[in-house]
Amino acid sequence: MLMQTMSPSCYHNFNRYCPITESPPGHADIPEQVAIVRLEEAGMGKQMLEFALYAILHYSRDMTNLAIGQKNRQWLAIATPKKLPFSTTIGVMGLGKLGGFVAKSLAKLGYPVSGYSRTLKDIDGVACYDNKQFTTFLANSEVLINLLPLTAQTENILNRRLFCRLPRGAYLVNLARGRHLVEQDLIPMLDSGQLSGALLDVFRHEPLPENHPFWQDERIIVTPHLAAITLQEEAVQQISRNIYALEAGQTMRGVVNRQRGY
Question: What is the pTM assigned to this prediction?
């Protein structure tokens, strides 16, 4: 989103658009006539793809156990990859600008990729599912990559019930929002073997508290919300195009649908 975050009282000074850098906690304080505009992709797609690919390789080449072996000075010569190259089944939750790019790019590399979105999408090389086929989507996701928007419907979606519908030993990758994950459900699912590991880049409380159990669990990779950063040049170009479109009476890109929440 654009420019600086402002207090609710400032919103009333704007008649048509509201330039803010990050989404306020809900949009209730912003007048209905003010359009909320978000940045679209802004150079983050390729960064997300790199992070997702790292997580997939970490899972498929069993890097968690190899790292434990190194820590214990064990030469695990009999260790073998979990999967043949590019055979790991990938599920991408959220097929917007970022999720769609990640899913399509992974499919181009040769991975079998499924994608889930609220409304059914059509993406080359990607088996797309909506709410009606959500269970089928999960059953085909050995590595589950979350890139959903955070809404009232998606908050807490990464929970025990969902994990139990994944293939046994699946790997979780959360690159979207910390509030998607029910944190207390994760470690029990790892202990049971239903999940084999997780890469988490986002958390309910950031920075992650020093006493949080995720820090000490070798099956969980913790990264400090840096899977993708907004690239300044790309962001400025988008902002400029939208301002010109607004002043010319044209349609702006990235206008938030308040009913959907994104």
Answer: 0.86
